[in-house]
Amino acid sequence: MVTIDLCKYFAKKKKSIREHTDDLLMNASILNAYGYINQREYELLIFACEYHDYGKVNPIFQRRIVGNSKFNKENEVVHNVLSLYFIDEKKIGNKEDYIKIAHAVLNHHDYGNVFEIIDERRELIEKLLSGFATYTLKSRTIKKIGKIVNDKEAIIVKGLLHKCDYSASAEIPIEFKNDFLNEGLRQLLNKWKKYDTSVEWNDLQKFCIANSENNIVAVAQTGLGKTEAGFHWIGNNKGFFILPIKTAINAIYKRVKEEILAEDSVNEKLALLHSDMLTYYNNTYTDNEFGADRLLEAQRSVETHRIVGRVANTEAGRQLVGQPSHLELPPANAVQAGVALRRLCDPRKTAAKYHCQLLLSIRG
Fold first, then answer.
1. Are 340 and 239 in contact (CB under 8 A)?
2. Domain end position, chosen among 170, 193, 223
């Protein structure tokens, strides 16, 4: 057996496994530094990032990267399956954490049924890993990995691994820090005071400021400042502001962009999230402000959910608590984020009840 020097193996055409892995670890540290994940999630994520691409050391993958050839299922096994065999349970410390990390590593790509591959390609797996220091997987361990798919923490860790990996591969920032919304709201109030010196935040808005760490369901008529109340509740945190109608979403986006952000670094602070967002951007901005390259960048930013504030539709909101099975990225992005929902109408109705459950499940 030999110790692996990841600097000697390619993860991509011009980047070693060590370099790519270090990029992921840096992304994880940024999420932690910004307060978007807690310490427990960070510790699990570090292990998942470290081990996720170890399987790429196999000789077939290395030859394929150098020769720029295609994957051949007859003589190769997907690297996420092979990476599973490198995870050292003793370094992780306990079985439960090992299972969650193994789940994230094993499933960080959707290249088929990984459990069928493990079961049916045993000889090829052994051949590809020959000469490397790996660990034997017991059948009961594999079963436990398969059963943890609905575990909340396992979903979050896997989603965060996707986020770190996607951002590292695309070579784009993983997140921007929200340190501006409270100040933007303060500046907005000062702007209003120029016309009416007596204006202050109303009782609902003050309540949201005082209870920003709690879940709130507010019932109020039109004109009572629910929008500003929602922004106060989000505060200097990552946030999703969800409405059911695209025109309303676009209007809120424009309002925040112009009145709260005052056009300052909008591309790093605010984004739309609905099916016609690129059309809106294209129709709203001039070529100099938002050209083709920026449109593509906006799409990638939204796909990786790295923009701090998002004005989104209810379908996007549903995805934040979506089902696992390769849909873990949206809920992972909602960790430590505020989700403000507007226009719930009659709370006795099913849709309104669903939306209230959505809000509580994200923040609570």
1. yes
2. 170
86 in a structural domain: yes
Q: Residue 345 belongs to a domain with what CATH number? A: 3.40.50
The tokens of 206 are what? Answer: 């003050």
Q: Is residue 85 located within the same domain as residue 151? A: yes
81 and 122 Cβ atoms separated by less than 8 Å = no
Residue 176 lies inside a defined structural domain of this protein:
no
Q: Domain of residue 269: give its range.
A: 181-363
- Which residues make beta-bridge pairs with 310? 240, 271
Q: Rounded to an integer, what distance in angstroms lies between the CA atom of residue 362 and that of residue 360?
A: 5
**Can you list the pairs that 261-264 forms with residues at least 24 positions away whose Cβ atoms lie under 8 Å?**
261/180, 261/184, 262/184, 262/187, 264/180
Asked if residue 189 and residue 335 are part of one domain, the reply reads: yes
How many structural domains does the chain have? 2
Residues 152 and 201 in one domain: no
Q: Round to whole Å and give the CA distance between 161 and 154.
A: 11
Q: Express each pLDDT in 25-57 by its tens digit.
A: 999 999 999 888 899 999 999 999 999 999 999
The β-bridge partners of 273 are: 312
**Residue 242, SS3?**
strand
pTM here is: 0.79
Spell out the residues 6+ positions from residue 68 whose beta carbon is closer than 8 angstroms to its own: 13
* DSSP track, 304-362: TT-SSEEEE-HHHHHHHT--SSS--HHHHHTTTEEEEE-----TTSHHHHHHHHHHHHH
> Burial letters for 255-278: b for 16+ Cβ neighbours within 10 Å, e otherwise?
ebbebbbeeeebebbbbbbbeebb
Both 162 and 200 in a single domain? Answer: no
10-residue mean pLDDT profile of the chain (364 residues): values are: 81 95 97 91 97 97 92 94 96 95 95 93 96 93 94 92 93 87 94 94 94 85 87 87 84 90 83 81 65 56 49 51 50 60 45 38 37
Domain-terminating residue out of 117, 140, 170: 170
Residue 364, Cβ density class (10 Å: 0-12 exposed, 13-18 middle, ≥19 buried): exposed
Q: Are residues 188 and 317 in the same domain?
A: yes
